[in-house]
Design a protein that fits this description.
The complex is a heterodimer of chains A (259) and B (369). By secondary structure, chain A is of the alpha/beta class. Chain A is 37% helix and 17% strand. In chain A, strands 1, 2, 3, 4, 5, 6, 7 and 8 form an eight-stranded mixed beta sheet that branches. Chain B is of the alpha+beta class. Chain B is globular and about 70 Å long. Classes of the chains: A alpha/beta (259), B alpha+beta (369). At the A-B interface, helix 1 and strand 4 of A face helix 1, helix 7 and helix 9 of B.
Chain lengths: 259, 369
């Protein structure tokens, strides 16, 4: 260890993983049960394993639930280190105030809020999970969020949870992620669980390492699409097949009524 | 004893090594009995600027020769030194025009011998392909930032276009950044020597008083490696402490070996720094213990901030465990909280002792006068 290493401050890199979880009334039952189960395994097992093997960055987690209004499940002052987070089941009930969630997220995506110790170019990962259409002024909330530089550079992926075709408003999710190819629709709990876990790990692994691409700098939207493609291939064993509207629809379990 | 010292160092970014991408930073320095010059330049990381590494190299080379010549002229004829703001503005505007002109000449010379081909443009976006092939704005391929600082016995100055920082240590060890930061530089966006209005994007600072003891210029890979500006300043103070206590050779080796590690643990970006030092002044301040005291204060402040942040984290975790009814998790933190509280009190006491010692010495010096 050199002389400077002994006396100069130690640099550290942090990557923050944000979850926005729809806990509205329509998520009640098997859907929220699956989310609870998947989140517990993603956070307490998969991500912790990733974090232990990752010497490039510390992963921090911030989880927000939204129904009628929104609320941070993790502390509202700062994200928590992955080592400190334990998942406690959330309950479903109320409306789908996604606009409020966007406004609250915008406040926290700041060096004066959740990103105080952010160094280098490790923009956050934001995973949005929803089964329905927003019930508040989501456009106003998203417009505010879209002016936020951290949001612009974040890797954003949306998971649309559908029991029936067209249940989730994919247009809203597409506006959030910036591309329909970063919106994945699921119809059964097995796929949802696999998706939450794999997206969490893949996106965090991607974002918390220095970029692997040998030449061009990609946009955050392209990065999200690449992560989605990798995840879908991992889950289904085959390449992404996009629907007519450009969305990605996957299922592993053939039982449509299996919520 | 030599009057001045300078050193410069660049290191390929950790992420660039992994991606097999060349180092796009460049740095340079010069010193003699009259001056010390420090220069860094940072090429643009996007593939839309395929010759940016050459651009930063040309920028450092033209800056070194131009600034030497500029300073020799001023030192040779004191009447040329500006007195009013207008004179200063005019003097530096001409210098900056000269820098730009010479950089463009180097770029044009290189282009003549090495025209841009399809091979250069294979990873360039369509928007930039048009700039090169249709608009013929080839200089953009060589875009770079540039920061220059020079210290003499009579004056000192700093010039900057683009991101990165110019950090100045005064004779009493205080730190400042007198060059106005450009608000157009934020995130991964920067102004550049290749911009159409580059002349308007230069900022400078000039002074005939308060000649600094040292100036450090660094590319943004350096400041992006730290989470606060105080940590960056502490790093530079640590470098000055090593220079004072161990001499120039050890200092140079330490900086050269530190930069790759800084990039690996910090920003991952290319990192460059250069320093210009009033060597005689530094030795005087060293004898007076000023640098060591400043370092001690900054280091203690940093340790205090770290402990406060850890204590805050523990409180947050306790709050969180309480909110999710995890009583085991909650109680496990109480021992940690107690230990941190003891460390924090001890660190606060140490910090107050240092500050009080400093204030007593100040009063004693005033009484002596």
């Amino acid at each position: 260890m050199g002389l400077l290493d002994k006396i100069a401050p130690a640099p550290r890199k942090t990557m923050t993983l944000f979850y926005l979880v729809d806990t509205s009334g329509s998520m009640a039952g098997a859907k929220i049960g699956t989310v609870n189960n998947a989140m517990m395994e993603a956070i307490e097992s998969d991500l912790k394993e990733l974090s232990d093997s990752n010497d490039d960055a510390e992963i921090k987690v911030a989880i927000m639930k939204f129904s009628t209004g929104c609320e941070w499940v993790t502390p509202s002052k700062e994200p928590l280190s992955l080592a400190d987070v334990s998942w406690r089941d959330v309950q479903a009930g109320g409306l789908t105030d996604m606009g409020s969630a966007f406004i609250e997220l915008d406040k926290k995506l700041s060096r004066n809020a959740f990103l105080q110790s952010q160094t280098g170019a490790y923009a956050p990962v934001i995973i949005l999970m929803s089964d329905g259409a927003p019930t508040d002024d989501w456009e106003k909330g998203l417009a505010a969020l879209k002016t936020n530089n951290w949001y612009k550079n974040a890797l954003k992926i949306a998971i649309a949870i559908e029991e029936s075709e067209g249940e989730a408003d994919k247009n809203v999710l597409k506006e959030f992620t910036g591309t329909i190819e970063a919106v994945i629709t699921v119809h059964d709990k097995q796929t949802l669980k696999a998706l939450i876990r794999k997206v969490s790990v893949r996106a965090s692994a991607f974002q918390s390492h220095s970029k692997q691409s040998s030449d061009d700098i990609t946009t955050p939207e392209q990065d999200a699409v690449n992560v989605v493609k990798e995840v879908v291939k991992e889950i289904t064993g085959s390449d992404v097949e996009t629907q007519i509207d450009g969305s990605i629809d996957i299922k592993v379990d053939e039982d449509w009524g299996n919520w | 004893m030599e009057a001045f010292f300078s050193h410069s160092s660049s290191s390929q970014g950790y992420s660039h090594i992994k991606a097999n991408k060349e180092c796009q930073d460049c740095s340079g320095c010069f010193c003699n009995s009259d001056m010390a010059i420090a220069i860094v330049a940072d090429g643009h990381g996007s593939s839309d600027y395929p010759r940016t590494a050459l651009g930063s190299k040309f920028a450092v080379e033209v800056a070194l020769s131009s600034i030497k010549s500029f300073v020799e002229t001023l030192l040779g004829d004191e009447s040329l030194l500006p007195i009013t703001d207008e004179e200063e503005s005019s003097l530096f505007s001409n210098l900056e025009k000269n820098l730009l002109s010479q950089w463009h000449s180097r770029v044009e010379e290189h282009l003549r011998k090495n025209p841009i081909t399809e091979y250069d443009l294979v990873n360039v976006t369509d928007k930039y392909k048009d700039k090169y092939l249709v608009e013929k704005k080839y200089e953009k391929a060589y875009g770079t930032t540039l920061i220059i600082s020079c210290i003499t016995k009579q004056f000192w100055f700093g010039i900057q276009v683009g991101d990165g920082r110019c950090v100045v240590f005064s004779t009493n060890g205080d730190v400042s950044e007198p060059i106005e930061l450009d608000s157009r530089c934020h995130g991964n966006i920067t102004t550049s020597i290749c911009d159409d209005d580059a002349l308007l994007e230069f900022h400078h600072y000039f002074s005939k008083q308060d000649i600094p003891v040292a100036v450090f210029v660094g590319t943004d890979g350096i400041d992006d490696s730290f989470s606060s500006i105080q940590e960056l300043y502490l790093m530079y103070l640590s470098m000055m402490k090593i220079l004072c206590e161990n001499g120039k050779t050890v200092f140079s080796k330490e900086v050269d070996s530190y930069l790759p590690e800084l990039s690996k643990r910090g920003s991952g970006d290319d990192v460059s720094l250069a320093c210009a030092v009033s060597w005689k002044k530094l030795q005087q301040r060293n004898k007076q213990g000023i640098i060591q005291r400043k370092w001690k204060i900054a280091d203690n402040q940093y340790s205090l901030e770290q402990l406060k942040a850890k204590s805050n984290e523990v409180l947050l975790r306790k709050e969180y465990f309480k909110s999710i009814n995890d009583s085991d998790g909650f109680h496990n933190l109480e021992q940690e909280e107690k230990e941190l509280s003891v460390k924090l009190s001890s660190q606060k006491a140490m910090f107050e002792t240092i500050i009080n010692t400093k204030q007593r010495k100040k009063k004693h010096r005033r009484r002596k006068k």
